[in-house]
Amino acid sequence: MAAPPEKTLKDLSGKWIMQNIGWILRQAIRLATVTLTINEYISDDSLTHIDIQSYVYLSRASSTLRNFWPRNNPPKTRVLITALLNRVATGGISGTTENRTLDWTWRDHSDAIFGELRGRSRWCKLSEVDDDEWLKTGWIEPEGDFVQSYVESDANGWTADQVWGFEMIDGNRYYTRHVVVRKGDDWKQARLVYDYHGSAVAESGEDDDLAYGE
Q1: What's the pTM value of the predicted model, to 2 decimals?
Q2: 28: phi > 0 → left, psi -120 to 50 → alpha, else beta; which?
């Protein structure tokens, strides 16, 4: 469902389900639903924290996953598919926990898929975002406050810059993220759209190290 009017970047707490993610990890992830459980709060030192727990749910039979390999997928994707098959018995796959502090301080993060990363997050105005129009366009309140999240992989030579906000899609208000990923002279842009599914409810799962990223 669309984001209710009381949901803003000052209160993202709740459960959000990502729409249409076929571009992420291609076949393996486009067969799944990614759910984010978000807890946003302000600590005693007046810093905003956004803690995100992701879960992955397969939306098609595991036999469909098996049909993708070995012909169509490189070895790394086959490993991901095998991991999905091995972990799906309980219905949900516990993903990574991302604890963001909006103070623009660099922090290290170890991700099972993307490796060793470092990133930082902050509140910002669009005028403070580097000159990339994709990150700045389409928002409902362009003069308001936004969340910017930046991550880089030194080992693999790529960066990902995100701006979070709300925009109108087909007449409805949605929480979205605009993303630009760069590696050398190559770059890709994407928009992640999230359906709101009510207040956060704790999920159970054993695997806190299987991450599919943003």
Answers
A1: 0.73
A2: alpha
